[in-house]
Amino acid sequence: xxxxxxxxxxxxxxxxxxxxxxxxxxxxxxxxxxxxxxxxxxxxxxxxxxxxxxxxxxxxxxxxxxxxxxxxxxxxxxxxxxxxxxxxxxxxxxxxxxxxxxxxxxxxxxxxxxxxxxxxxxxxxxxxxxxxxxxxxxxxxxxxxxxxxxxxxxxxxxxxxxxxxxxxxxxxxxxxxxxxxxxxxxxxxxxxxxxxxxxxxxxxxxxxxxxxxxxxxxxxxxxxxxxxxxxxxxxxxxxxxxxxxxxxxxxxxxxxxxxxxxxxxxxxxxxxxxxxxxxxxxxxxxxxxxxxxxxxxxxxxxxxxxxxxxxxxxxxxxxxxxxxxxxxxxxxxxxxxxxxxxxxxxxxxxxxxxxxxxxxxxxxxxxxxxxxxxxxxxxx
Amino acid sequence: xxxxxxxxxxxxxxxxxxxxxxxxxxxxxxxxxxxxxxxxxxxxxxxxxxxxxxxxxxxxxxxxxxxxxxxxxxxxxxxxxxxxxxxxxxxxxxxxxxxxxxxxxxxxxxxxxxxxxxxxxxxxxxxxxxxxxxxxxxxxxxxxxxxxxxxxxxx
Lengths: 380, 155
Fold this sequence. Notes:
- The complex is a heterodimer.
- Chain A is of the alpha/beta class.
- Chain A has helices at 22-37, 58-63, 82-96, 133-148, 152-166, 180-184, 213-219, 247-260, 277-286, 295-300, 317-321, 325-340, and strands at 5-15, 46-50, 73-76, 101-108, 188-190, 193-194, 203-211, 224-233, 269-271, 311-312, 354-361, 371-378.
- Chain A binds chain B through residues 116-117, 119-120, 123-132, 134-135, 138-140, 142-143, 146-147, 187-193, 236-241, 243, 365-366, and chain B through 8, 15-19, 22-25, 46-50, 56-57, 75-87, 91, 93-95, 97, 100-106, 112, 114-115, 126-127, 136.
């Protein structure tokens, strides 16, 4: 495999845009990316789209509007890991030498689906019982608080941190800090989770360009090396399992650390899948950022703040940006690209040189999650 | 199918999932509660619910029919206050560990079950009565369900 570089990123601001289709959102992000980089259609060898609800041939519907047609393009569905999976397939193509320059994007319109929890349409023995994603995470939260002697304020502290970070992000759905009282006083959704422990339904899109070392030099834009790109599926079984330990995250990140030759202590920036406040705690532990039961204390002590020992969700996370399912994984990589190239503005983590991004999701029975994707970016 | 053996009706609008390619939950009801039909892989000994005809862990096709229940233990639970279509919130859900399998089930309760709460599986109806309910396994706190009442748990 040869090294793969990330040389540009674009995010169409996240928020409620019910009148703008996923294809239009994706087009806006991809158009911004290719305009800023000055990439011509003939330079693009392949294209990848990640989306859960964007419909058939989303990739074609976006790429042909920027002159990329005829080349191989693919639309990837992997629930919350759809965007990370699209980037991974682009990484595979460049790493293997099949392609020298690819564009990957994620796009999603969720608010046009109506309000409330995301519809889980898969025929499934748990969905038939009326489960919704907040309920699944609520049960993980109840068990985590029980096993580790933590309290609801420990969950709320995650929301407070990430909303404070998001207040500085012009691309975030929510750009307003909230205090502990506001979080703990918000509407109950699935005990012990309240509204502000949950990410909002959001529309948005993000795009990145991956290429070989030669193309990166030719384009002449700031480049970071994609030192690891990994996707894993959930291990299926219906026995007892420890739901406070997302094994899929541990397994995917373990493979990524091995590939990149770095460990959790080397990370400056982590954008992880905080779809719910409890998710930041359990995934931070599975990523090795804290010991078992230690993430709550790390958040309370400010260790995950932007100026802490490792900045966790310095962009505001899903709790602030929102979670346009397929776009999230690509947006995390875009935010991390800006961090490592010193272009993150008010979000900048000083001296950041190694970043990890993590998306995981898919509510089906018998697995932690359906799919997980981890990327590690390094500024050499 | 005799009267004490159940699975969700395939045409139930609220919760239909039992299409030909999806394993459907099945159970039987006795005097002391409800037992789920499960599978045990004779090669690797893992337990499966709903039943399988090939082990998803080791791919063996030598599968023994088994049952789980009626007694189990709550692993974690929640009161759902923003629920799925076809259900009327609030409702209580719990993961329940029962004879080697973990299931997600409704609980006949107004509040969450602390982890470790002993429960009994019984037959009941789930779903929004205005949209249509369907028969299912449901959990009740074991001390609230004396054996003599366990089969007829439509409270």
